[in-house]
Specification:
Elements lengths: L1 E3 L2 E3 L5 H17 L6 E3 L5 E3 L2 E3 L1 H12 L5 E4 H4 L8 E7 L8 E6 L1
Parallel strand pairs: 3-6
Antiparallel strand pairs: 1-2, 4-5, 6-8, 7-8
Amino acid sequence: MKYLGDAVMFVTHGAPSAVRVAKGLIEAAHARGMQARVGVTIGTVLALEGDYFGPVVNLAARLVSMADAGEVLVTVEIVDRLDDAVDIEPLGPRMVRGFTAPIELARLR
């Protein structure tokens, strides 16, 4: 986990654990009278001296900026790795700054 001002970046080894952490962050913020936004992506990153780099990191940051307060946005690649018990609302393809092709997104409910 890395703190970035009023943000945090976390890395896990799978979509289910990433979604659990994301939901936990939203719930913890709400319990403290605050609101959080989360973006969850999956893919290969470059790990170097305690930091992470690459398009996956950039996409997650863009999803955070697109999310409403209290919302978790995920890519379709995350959805494909979750079981049916997770309540997902498909949002369809969206243009994301810094990416040339639309990204298929969904929202956790």
